Amino acid sequence: MIIRENTIRIDEPTKENMLEAQDDLSFEDAVFFDLEHYVYKKPKCVGVFGACYFSPVNSEIKVTQYMIENREEVKDILILAKRYLEDICENEGKSSIVTFSGNNDFTVINYLFNKYKVDFSFDEHFKSVDLQKEYEKVKKESIGLKNLEKLFNIEREHGDLISGANLAKTFHKVLKDKDYIFRMPKEKIEKILVYNEADVVNLFHIYKDWKQYMIVEKEEEEIEEVEDIEDVEEIEKIEEEFQEEIKESCTI
Question: Is the CATH code 3.30.420.10 the one for domain 2-208?
Answer without folding.
Answer: yes
